[in-house]
Design goal:
This protein is an all-beta fold and 616 residues long. The strands form 16 sheets. Strands 13, 16, 19, 21, 53, 54 and 57 form a 7-stranded mixed beta sheet that branches. Strands 1-12-14-18-17 form a 5-stranded antiparallel beta sheet, with no helix packed on it. It is globular, with a radius of gyration of 26 Å. The longest helix has 9 residues, at 30-38. 2% of the residues lie in helices and 43% in strands. This is Kelch-like protein. InterPro entries: Kelch-typ_b-propeller (IPR015915), Kelch_1 (IPR006652).
Amino acid sequence: MAKIRINFFVILLVSCKLGTGNNLFDPNSPASLGLLLLGSEPVVTMEFSTNRVQPGGVMYVSTNHDFTTKTNGLKLPIAGTSDNPISQIIPRSKFLYEIRMNPSVTTGRFRINLKDYYSNESLLVNPETFEFEIDSEPPILELRTGNGIDISELESGFLDIVSNEEIVWDGDLSQVSLSGTAKNTLVVSDIITSDRNIRLLFAGNPNSNGGILTISFANIKDKASNSQGTVMVPINVYAFKSGPNLNVARRSCVGVELDDGRRLVLGGKAKKDVVINGNGTLSHSEFYDSISKTFIQGPDMVYRRQEFEAIKLLDGRIFVTSGIGGKIGSSNDGLTSTEVYDPVTNTWAEGPHLSVPRLFHKMTVLPNGDVLVVGGMSPYKPIQSVGSVELVHITNNPATMTVELIGNLSDPRGKHAQILSQAAGKVIIFGGERSDVFGPLSNDFIPNALDTIEIYDINTKTLSKSQAKVYKRFNHFVHGLKNGEILVLGGINSRFDNAQPVLRAQIYNPLTDTIRDHKNLLFGREWGSSFVFPYGKDQLIVAGGLEYRTINGSTFDSIHDTESWSESSNRFYVTSRSLNARWDGCDIRYHSVGGGMILGGRVGDILGNTEEYSFE
């Protein structure tokens, strides 16, 4: 059978379009409004991306109901077949779900009967049943431009929908309809068609919020006149949106998302002349309430800290280590202290002390729940890099936690990047800055970027040096790929006047201990932020930071432009612009829905504003 393909990070298939007329999926629909006014039970609507599914393939369903709050998540009761053709349902957001098909079920038909299940849930469903056919070669469409549209500054743009064979379609604007939570974000202004390509031209509102935009095409056929009916394209629409101001402007802070959905920003350095607990280094914490869009003061940490590290433990508590600061008072010192935040009791408790003070270090939570603490820089001048690696044994009571000295890195370092490779059973440590002291004066140290990679073996608890080399870099990013490899990108290669950004990305294979060159970034940057959008194939968004723009590296600018990298296209491309060109702030990654928030930082002065990059 003739096939049509579309590519956009999520695979698009032929649609089971829900109904006609008023769209209940759209919260602004008159039908939805009428139900609210009548006080009726909410009507659950669903749109499936295909009614012909491939064994072992994927389809998507968008809905107006948040099933992530339910204990059992989204359930799709199957009828008409003895073998369940669905192997797994994965939430990609509150309203978009990925359905993975069972590869062993290769033929037949089945129904999804929503009425039988949801009548027990006090939810009304329309329609109540859907019919599906299992086909080893279903018609597939593919969108060429990533998995979504960024509307941060979009006034016009386009999407290309491509086919691997000729299509028959009138190309009439009336045959294109938009629905979903981002329905009012974009308007299709024109259509350009050819035998194997549909280009949709959009006009957009750069001040709109993001969301899921469903684009439906009516009466598309291939050359063999196999009717495709209505083709549904659920596209994620992203935007940088201005967030509320922090109660306390800060830089050098840390942000983290809690298991219960709250977002927490910790510590950092306040503006000049702002003194809290006797000092401008902060113990202050704030929660971001995504419902009220405000920041609410949280409990103070035990210690004031900046240039510290915080990480979420497997049980949901937050573990904080080192940095520079102190308890209440006017002086700052290098810290060896640790502490733990319990979100259930909303309290901080002091934990064990590390062997040496350190800042600009990194931590990784291991599969058994313990925390590996690696490297860093000493807080004293002349500044010296830290080589020690320590393992914190996590217990329910912070007072009973212990610290085990693992050993020393071959090259002491701070400002490095590290990541856990589950497949290899190792923590991989990339690059960083090494500072060697040669005299007693405050400036008697030499900082150098490193090209070495070091490895911590989880099973043997030993350190070793890789044979592979990265381009010399520090203040860079690493990103784990779905195939187990690791993308290394960004950073700069020196702290001297000849500092240059590292544009070349690299990909490291932890199983073979090899590294290869990859594409170039469009902007070299350090001190930036990165977010992942977990829909279909990964997409990495990189924002903010500093770029060194002159030949001798003596001049630098903070960066407005953002860029993306995707596994499907294996390239970097300009995404949009952030609202503020900032660096040395902190970010909170939204692990549940993708995207995140950038907080504080500085552009000359220390900032108190925030911005979100998401489609919540």
